[in-house]
């Protein structure tokens, strides 16, 4: 009971009718119980996109949808949400977290968790705590002050525990101030259980357990995945005999596992005791909701001369590498098999008014790795590839297992048959590929193991007998790509055959690790492109149309678990493409698909910019709805977009150095750093434009008690287009000897869609939680006495509309929630 039964289940006890609890990744969808044979499902917009709605009701509805999806996969626990703070947009998993602000993160996490758990699925809140980079993530120590730890990094967890009571929390890989969180009795027992009174389950991140006795005594209840690597019967019995742990220690962990199993079984008995068959349910209402959610997450960053919406146009060019890409999430645990994906180009074609011609030009590639080889068909005629596992590649070897893949890649860490476990085995991925062009085509192989790629029997790529180059693939365990080229003819069919083995290859500058636990194969393919000619073709098209939409951004290769981004820059020659197209057409609109901030050296040259994030299944439709005015954009930035990397608070203290990363910015994370240093960002936290205008009036203040105040404000649509608006309330602390941020977010509220001239009154409650700071002398929360200032604003940096001052008197100190 101290460890999982396998990758996704706890250990059942049939004689006592105790079920094994099934879990699933992840924050934007429910993948199910296999990386290798993924059941198709819904992909929501990434968490930064959800946060950009500034709408807790929408996020609650998203959580409810995810609960249905989890149960469709037979799971009653979702490993989500992720609420780590975005110290830097370069963090590999920034797209997977909500925001740089702890209050907003806590509010959104609460809504998400309540949506899940009210519908019978346990949240597994992660990653507790200060797990904010991927570089050396299992070893790095986040060196952070006590006050910043409490006010910034623990605060979202505290809010979520207080307002939604997540049934489980996942401990993070990293250390905090020298101690692994999974072994920290102070964080797991002292803070979570004793101070906050939380009584849920603490599980490890996958392979995030580093000891037996220390982790058990600290309060890490469950080692994942299973079977146990540390908590084997032998080791546990040995430590019991040595009195390194006691039966009481074990009982405490087992009790929490059993209580969690009981809670999930009571919430969803039909799923827990069901047949564990995973299904795909493509519900029409869900499609409508995903499109609405995606559109409301889009942020209109710039709109000069009413370039948007796209009206009075007959010809629109869609240019750029992301227009045809099927990316709808970042990389790593967030990835799943999407039941459908609408690309930017397809979305624009579907939404464009009748009579509007849509034309496409690539412009420039932007991939980090060659895209997955598309256009392969399996033996059964369905798009994808067959993958057969063998004990040998000798002729007539029997097939041990046959996977029917829907893509030209596979991760087999949880999909190897029992009969092959612990042995050397082989696999063949095959299919029929139809060439999309005539000319040179480039192929690639990245592996965790070794592989060769044959096209029509000709060896094109060898990643088997070569000296392999370590890469970032397969959670950092795989190789870099090896490449090969072949002349192909458009429309002709080619036999694709990739031979693969789990036998580790010989890796450059890497020790011989023997048998590996992740096995993966990735086949890439893309035409060999004359980049100069491609840009010239895009520019020529831009000159000849009424408007241009340039689709740019990142992908799971650039933003992913296991590694961080190297810079804010868009890939390859993207910036050059945008600049050239903008010079050719004054009505150039840039749509950016990314999970966090990117640099925009061309921002003054283009007419409009839309931050479209990773929008999930309906990303193309959602963006098109905004571009053509079917939806009035209402999204707000949940993160600051800096002009340059040097302006980021964590710049210079972001990567691990000798096993440590110094949180030297202390409390000044995100917009608070820009306020403190008087820096001008590219776009501030909270920024977002509309096709209409809104005004505030008739502020009402109701003081409930000494530290609780309700602020009510009337929001009026003063423009001529219906739309909704998000109200942001910020606080400034009294002047004192203690340093505080210049101001900080206290709360948000979003109106319904308001017709032109219509008004709605919204209320934001300010409580002691929003007023409190952590006093590291007395190790408790406290509130500054004196005059507080309250601002209502459209973003963090222009919060100059003072609406109220109030004074706090008396002693206000506490240590719990």
Automatic annotation (TrEMBL):
Catalytically driven reaction(s): Hydrolysis of terminal, non-reducing beta-D-glucosyl residues with release of beta-D-glucose
Top-rank taxon, per record: Eukaryota
Record EC number: 3.2.1.21
Family the UniProt entry places it in: Belongs to the glycosyl hydrolase 3 family.
Enzyme class: hydrolase
Keywords in alphabetical order: Carbohydrate metabolism, Glycosidase, Hydrolase, Polysaccharide degradation
Residues covered by the PA14 domain: 380-539
Protein name: beta-glucosidase
The protein's annotated pathway: Glycan metabolism; cellulose degradation
Organism: Vanrija humicola
Pfam families: Fn3-like, Glyco_hydro_3, Glyco_hydro_3_C, PA14
One GO-annotated biological process of the protein: cellulose catabolic process
A GO molecular-function annotation: beta-glucosidase activity
InterPro entries recorded: Cellulose_deg_GH3, Fn3-like, GH, Glyco_hydro_3_AS, Glyco_hydro_3_C, Glyco_hydro_3_C_sf, Glyco_hydro_3_N, Glyco_hydro_3_N_sf
């Amino acid at each position: 009971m101290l460890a999982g039964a396998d990758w996704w289940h706890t250990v059942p006890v049939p004689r006592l009718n105790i079920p094994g609890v099934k879990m699933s990744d992840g924050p934007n969808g429910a993948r199910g119980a296999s990386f290798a044979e993924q059941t198709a499902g819904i992909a929501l917009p990434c968490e930064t996109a959800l946060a950009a709605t500034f709408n807790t009701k929408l996020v609650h509805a998203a959580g409810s949808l995810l609960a249905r999806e989890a149960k469709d996969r037979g799971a009653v626990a979702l490993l989500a949400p992720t609420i780590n703070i975005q110290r830097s947009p370069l963090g590999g998993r920034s797209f997977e977290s909500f925001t740089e602000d702890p209050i907003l993160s806590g509010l959104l996490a609460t809504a998400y968790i309540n949506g899940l758990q009210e519908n019978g699925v346990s949240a597994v809140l992660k990653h507790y705590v200060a797990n904010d980079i991927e570089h050396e993530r299992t070893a790095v120590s986040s060196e952070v002050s006590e006050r910043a730890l409490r006010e910034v990094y623990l605060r979202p967890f505290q809010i979520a525990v207080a307002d939604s009571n997540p049934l489980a929390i996942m401990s993070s890989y990293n250390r905090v101030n020298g101690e692994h969180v999974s072994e920290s009795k102070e964080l797991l027992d002292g803070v979570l259980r004793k101070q906050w009174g939380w009584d849920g389950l603490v599980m490890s991140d996958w392979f995030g357990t580093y000891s037996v006795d220390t982790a058990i005594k600290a309060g890490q209840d469950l080692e994942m995945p299973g079977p146990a690597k540390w908590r084997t019967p032998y080791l546990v019995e040995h430590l019991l005999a040595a009195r390194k742990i006691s039966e009481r220690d074990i009982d405490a962990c087992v009790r929490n596992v059993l209580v969690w199993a009981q809670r999930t079984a009571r919430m969803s008995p039909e799923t827990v005791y069901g047949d564990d068959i995973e299904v795909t349910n493509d519900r029409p209402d869900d499609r409508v909701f995903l499109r609405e959610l995606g559109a409301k997450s889009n942020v209109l960053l710039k709109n000069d001369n009413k370039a948007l919406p796209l009206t009075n146009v007959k010809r629109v060019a869609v240019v750029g590498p992301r227009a045809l890409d099927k990316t709808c999430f970042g990389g790593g645990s967030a990835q799943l098999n999407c039941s459908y994906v609408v690309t930017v180009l397809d979305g624009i074609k579907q939404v464009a008014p009748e009579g509007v011609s849509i034309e496409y030009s690539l412009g420039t590639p932007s991939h980090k790795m060659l895209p997955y080889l598309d256009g392969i068909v399996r033996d059964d005629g369905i798009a994808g590839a067959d993958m057969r596992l063998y004990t040998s590649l000798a002729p007539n070897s029997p097939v041990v297992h046959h996977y029917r893949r829907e893509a030209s890649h596979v991760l087999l860490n949880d999909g190897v048959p029992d009969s092959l476990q612990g042995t050397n085995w082989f696999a063949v991925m095959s299919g029929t590929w139809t060439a999309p062009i005539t000319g040179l085509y480039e192929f690639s192989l990245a592996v965790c193991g070794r592989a060769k790629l044959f096209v029509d029997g000709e060896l094109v790529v060898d990643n088997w007998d070569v000296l392999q180059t370590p890469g970032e693939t397969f959670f950092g365990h795989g190789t870099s790509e090896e490449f090969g080229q072949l002349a192909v003819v458009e429309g002709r069919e080619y036999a694709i055959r990739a031979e693969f083995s789990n036998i580790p290859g010989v890796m450059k500058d890497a020790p011989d690790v023997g048998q590996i636990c992740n096995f993966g194969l990735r086949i890439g393919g893309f035409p060999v492109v004359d980049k100069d000619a491609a840009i010239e073709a895009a520019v020529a098209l831009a000159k000849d149309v009424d408007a241009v939409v340039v689709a740019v951004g990142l992908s799971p290769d650039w933003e992913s678990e296991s590694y961080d981004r190297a810079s804010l820059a868009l890939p390859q020659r993207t910036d050059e493409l945008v600049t050239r197209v903008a010079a050719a057409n004054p009505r150039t609109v840039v749509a950016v698909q990314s999970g966090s901030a990117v640099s925009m050296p061309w921002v003054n040259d283009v007419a409009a910019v839309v931050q479209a994030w990773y929008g999930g299944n309906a990303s193309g439709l959602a963006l098109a709805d905004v571009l053509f005015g079917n939806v009035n954009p209402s999204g707000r930035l949940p993160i600051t977009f800096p002009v340059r990397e040097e302006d980021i608070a964590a710049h210079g203290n972001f990567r691990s150095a000798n096993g440590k990363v110094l949180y030297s910015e202390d409390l000044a994370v995100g917009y608070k750093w820009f306020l403190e240093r008087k820096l001008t960002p590219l776009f501030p936290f909270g920024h977002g434009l509309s096709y209409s205008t809104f005004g505030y009036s008739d502020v009402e203040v109701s003081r409930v008690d000494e530290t609780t105040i309700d602020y009510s404000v009337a929001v009026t649509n003063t423009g001529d287009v219906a739309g909704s608006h998000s109200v942001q309330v910020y606080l400034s602390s009294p002047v004192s000897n203690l340093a505080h941020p210049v101001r900080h977010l206290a709360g948000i509220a979003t109106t319904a869609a308001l017709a032109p001239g219509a008004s709605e009154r919204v209320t934001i409650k300010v409580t002691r939680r929003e007023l409190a700071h952590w006093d590291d002398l007395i190790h408790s929360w406290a509130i500054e006495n004196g005059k507080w200032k309250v601002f209502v604003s459209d973003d963090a940096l222009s919060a100059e509309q003072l609406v109220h001052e109030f004074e706090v008197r008396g002693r206000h100190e506490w240590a719990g929630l």
